[in-house]
Amino acid sequence: MSGAGPRSAAPTPGRPHPLGATPSRDGVNFSVYARGAERLDLLLYDGVDDAAPARELRLDARVHRSGHYWHVYVPGLAPGQLYAWRAHGPHAPERGFRFDPDKVLLDPYGVAVAMPAGYRRAAAAGLGRNDAQAAKSVVADLRRYDWNGDLPLRRPFAQTVIYEMHVGGFTRHPNSGIAPGRRGTYAGVVEKIPYLRELGITAVGLLPVFQFDAQDAPPGLSNYWGYSPMSFFAPHAGYSCTPGQPLAVLDEFRDMVKALHRAGIEVLLDVVYNHTTEGDADGPTLSWRGLADGTYYMRDAAGRPLNYSGTGNTLNANQAVVRRMILDSLRHWVRVMHVDGFRFDLASILARDHDGRPLANAPVLWDIESDPVLAGTKLIAEAWDAAGLYQVGRFGGESWKEWNGQFRDDVRAFVRGDEGMVERLANRVMGSPDLYGATPREPAQSINFVTCHDGFTLEDLVSYERKHNEANREGNRDGSDHNLSWNCGVEGPSDDPAVEALRLRQIKNLLAINLLSLGTPMLLMGDEVRRTQHGNNNAYCQDNETSWFDWSAVECHAGLRRFVRGLIAIRALRESVRDAHHLTLAEVMQHARVQLHGVRLGRPDREHRSHSLAVTASSLSGDVLMHFAINAFWEPLDFELPALPEDAAAAGAAWRRVIDSARAAPDDLVMPPGGEVVAGATHRVGARSVVVLFAHLAAPGPAPR
I need a labelling partner for 30 at 20 to 30 A (CA). Which of 97, 190, 593, 656 fits? Predict the structure, then answer.
């Protein structure tokens, strides 16, 4: 760790651009935005746990301020230097000022963060100085890395299968096979890349990797998910395998990205630009609040934070300075860290003005969409927020894809046996044309998922009727009560073979619908091996075996993992997946000749009490047909089968069963062109099960009759 540099080196005024700490051959330029500040002090530390800075530079507004930007150039400093800010000014929340000259402040543009062993979130919220308990920013030279020619992969959404995973939880379990010092780290993910490749996923969607405050949790627990950002530029130091070396995390993160790219796997980041860990008016002063509270946050007339995020504060995303910070952050992760895309947490907040009113054309969203640095980058919106703004199907812009919450809810409801769901399921399977069909959108517009980090795992969805969040120490009041789950007759674990068989079948049904529907599928980490959180549907504060990937399940549930791997492979065989990224949803529906049925051909049963649906579709070239029959009824049903074209049948083409979720592994999935030949005009589909038939035609032919 570098020290504070020669004491005799005289600072110079420096320059306001670029923001952050920019090293050069002879020193470092520092610049920070602090509207309303009367004085700023640059604090230089020798050690992250030091109770006082080794050097404190008091900036003179007449020399070191340009507008609202404070800047200074300090000769003799080098990468590795620890630094922070102290801001002096009025405490007038109604005017947007919450200055506290006792508090050590992170640089909002700092690209690396050092966390002291004695870090205390409470010290940043209480009275008095907190130097020894405060995080520090670290000067870094971002040019010092060899990418070996690596570039973002830019795979079309139509060829994408996303695996939502947690960097720490993926390898932190003692049975992960990872060395203790590397468990729960970026390096640990690298060691598990063969598992991801074998599964067949093409992109990992990483839960937040921006530096976050693990202490933002109930007493005695830890913030596990990471939706509590302390920085928008620095990777989370807690995922480093070299503690005490805050610059090493930059290389470890980039090593992970580079290794995933070499394996053909894209890296998507879950980004939180809607709030920070500074929380409500009683929260800690860590960075933005102590520099320009009224600029960075939405607030009411009395200066109290507006809370559209459900976490206590809301970033003022459409304010010019905040817009620039968000854009600069995204560019940083694309240019410097080579990530392939982003999923925006509570993205609808970005569509609100400074008073919280929804905007028809939010400036920050168009800034992101039109930025040339971000062109070709995957942009995914969680198109709702915690205050009721729900924009699924109508999120702004042209390049944004959306988490389809309607897909999740409708598929869950249909599979558990709810009535009145056939029409809704038909829309979800066909790419949600009721949501996206009115605009020229590709089928991949919809990010289809049944489970995600927020809510039940797939195993828990079929094992619990209600949430069991007592371990979160919030009286089981946290987490959603709208789970659309069914426990198959027993709450929690069961040793009844019939219950177990039904649960496995329901899991396979949900996976098959998710992975074979039009749209971009997303899987939750561990669903392929029945990972359970024991009914906890809000495990944000459970950094323990409740949330971690249990690697013993990989062999215990090898049959299900094989089933998932086969579903992904079958999806990749469909030409509509390979080639449809340049077609709109309407064009794909036309060229693939999608037809809906019930148990009778051409007659989808839309009655309220119906529990069955069948879909026939061709490949875009017309040489492959697929028939997808879904039975959510509690008794077997006989589905009529389409007749194959006469010339194809004469040449030996036949329907072959490739998927039957009612069968045990390995007979539940057989890769095309294999599979048992299905003869006759009908096929029986078991109770609560899914069957998929394929027919390979000798040459493109007309649609089936």
Answer: 97
